[in-house]
Amino acid sequence: MAILEIRNLTKSFGGIKAVDDVSVDVLENTLLGIIGPNGSGKTTFVNMITGFIRPDKGSVRFKGKELIGLTPYKITNMGIGRAFQMVKPFFHLPAFKNIIVPLSSDRVKATKGGGFGDKDAIALDILEEVGFERDSSVPYKTASVLPHGYLKRLELARLIALKAEVLILDELFSGLSIAEVTSIVPIIEKLLVEGKTIIMIEHRLKELFRIADNVIVFNFGKKIKEGKPKEILEDEEVKKAYLGVEV
Amino acid sequence: MTKENYRKERIDRCIKARSDDIYAISSKNEIFYLLFPRVIPITALAILALILPLYWQKVIISACIFAMLAVSWDFLSSCGMLSLGQALFFGIGSYIAGILNHYLHLPFYITIPFATIFGGLFSTLLLLPVVRLRGIYFAMVTLILPLMLMRGIEATRIFGGNEGITGLSPFPNIWVELIIIITAMWVTLFALRRFISSDYGLIFVSIRDNDRATMASGINIYAFKAQALFIGSCICAFCGAFMTHSYMFTGIPVFTMEFSILPIAASAIGGIGSLAGPLLGAFVLVPLSEILREFGTLRVVFYGLVLVICVVALPEGIFHYLSRKYNEMERWVKIE
C-alpha cells in the first residue's frame, strides 16, 4: 500500500526546472532510495514533501491527506521526519538536550505518556540506540564539539524521538567512514523491522543498493528510472546519466 | 602549598547535568559552590542600597532598570530575535502607566502590573506580523517602530504631545522604590535563567541555534517566538512603568535610542547568552557613566575607551570570564 502518493510535483527556480513532473508511490514499510547526479533535484524534491519549499504544482498525499500547503512543523507532526544533508544540530545544547526538542513536539506529547516522564532519560535511551555510548561523556557534550559522525547520528536520533512513520534521510552517509556507515546500517534495518517507511537520498550506491527495496533515479529534475536495485544497476540509461558512459 | 596526602581537584564536575539536579544539595561543599556566586552579588547590592547616599541610590535604581532591559534583550537574542528596539517595549509600558495614572488616577500598585501585562501584550501584537523575519530584518523593524511612535505622538499631540505627561504620582519613598526594583531584577534574572534551562526553555535556544531544524522537530517556532517576545517585552514594559512613577513623568524621551542601545552595550561587555552577563554589564556601565561626569565633555571619550578595552580584552564578556575562572578553581582533597 502506498503511504505517500506523490503526483506531478514540479518546481522551477527562475528558468530552471529543479523538479519536473515527478510522480512516485512510496510503499509502506519499504526503503526507497533516491539517486542522481548533483543538482538533479533530489533535495528540492524532499524539501517539497516536507513543506520547506512550496511546489509550483502537484500533490503529495500522506495516508490520503494532502500535504501541500502545510507548514513544515505540521507535516512533521503528522509523522514525516526529515534529516538534513547539512547537519543541523542545536550547537549550544548538549547532545541529549538536542533530543528534548523533538520530544516536546505535539506529536510526541499526543502519544500515551509522551507529555510526562523524565525526558532526559528517554533522550539518553534514544541516543544509545543510535550509537552514543551511554556511560561515556559523549551524550552530555555540547553539540558544537561533537565529531561529524555523531552529528549524523543525532539527526537520525531526532527522527526516532519524533516516532516518525516516514523517515526521509538526505545523504545520511555522506562524509562518514566505511566503519561508521556499517554501524549505522543496522539501525536503519531495525527501523524497517519496526514497520517504518524510509526514503534515502544517497550517493553511496553500494551501501544503499544493499538495503533498498526500490530505487528511483533523478536527472535534470526528471525521474528517469524506477525499479529494483538490480534493474537500476543494469539499466543503460542510468549508467549513462549517473555512473558514467564508459561503465 | 603542597601538602602530604592531599591532591588538587577541580571543583566543577565534567557532567554539569548533575549539578543542576537534586545531587547538588548532597554535600555542604556543593551547596556552597552553587550559592556563593549567587548570594554575594545579592548581598552586596542590598548593602550598597542601604548605605549609599540618595544620589547613588538613584544610580542603583537606574542601573537596575538598564540591567532588566539588558536581561530582556539577552533573552530575546537567546531566542533568535535580534532586537534593536527595547525602547519600544519600554516606552509602551511607560505610556500605559502614565495614562492610567494621569487620566484615571490609579495608584502605582495598579498601573505597574497593568502596564507590564498589557504593554507586553500590545508590543507582541505590534510585532506579531514580523516574527517570521530573521536576524537583521527583524532588527530593522524593531529599530524603526519606537521612532515612528515618537514622531506619531509628537505630530498628533496626543497624551501631552511633545511635553509629555507630568506630575504623575511618585512612590511613597526611596525605600519602596529600591525594594521593588531590586526584587524585580533578581526575580527576573533567576526566573529567566531557570526557565531557559528547563525542557520548555530549551526550545527557545534551539530556535536561535537552528530554526529549520526546530521546525523539522515538529515545533511551531512562530508560537514560541511570540511567547518569547511577550516575556521579553513584559520585562521592558515593567521597567518603563516603574520609571514613569520614579521620575513622575512620561513623554517621547522614553522612546529614545538610549534605551535600545545601552542594553546591547551592557550585554556585549557583560557576556551575551548568559542573562547574568548583561546584568553585570549594566552595573558596570551605568555607575561608570556617573563617575565620568566629573570629566565634563571628555566623559564620552573615557566611556568609549572603557567599552573598547572591555570588548578587546574580554571578547567573551566579563561574566563568561569570571564564570570560567570560578569553575576552574581547584581545591585540596585528602587522598584516601
Features:
A: 247 residues; Rossmann fold; globular; B: mainly alpha; two-stranded antiparallel ribbon; 4 strands
Would you give an account of this structure?
The complex is a heterodimer of chains A (247) and B (336). Chain A has 247 residues and is α/β, with parallel strands linked by helices. Chain A has one domain (2-243): P-loop containing nucleotide triphosphate hydrolases (Rossmann fold). Chain A is 37% helix and 26% strand. Chain A contains ten helices and ten strands. In chain A, the strands form two sheets. Chain A has a six-stranded mixed β-sheet, with helices on both faces. A four-stranded antiparallel β-sheet of chain A has the order 2-1-4-5, with helices on one face. In chain A, a hairpin with a 2-residue loop joins strand 1 and strand 2. In chain A, helix 5 (119-129) packs across helix 6. The two termini of chain A are 35 Å apart. With 336 residues, chain B is mostly helical. Among the domains of chain B are: 23-52; 57-257, no CATH class. Chain B has 14 helices and four strands. Chain B has helices spanning 16-19, 28-51, 54-78, 86-104, 108-127, 135-156, 174-197, 199-209, 211-215, 221-247, 258-270, 276-291, 299-313, 318-327; strands at residues 6-10, 165-166, 249-250, 330-334. In chain B, the strands form two sheets. A two-stranded antiparallel ribbon of chain B has the order 1-4. A two-stranded antiparallel ribbon of chain B has the order 2-3. In chain B, helix 4 (86-104) crosses helix 5 (108-127) and helix 4 packs across helix 11 (258-270). The longest helix of chain B is centred in the C-terminal third of the chain and has 27 residues, at 221-247. At the A-B interface, helix 2, helix 3 and helix 4 of A face helix 8 and helix 9 of B.
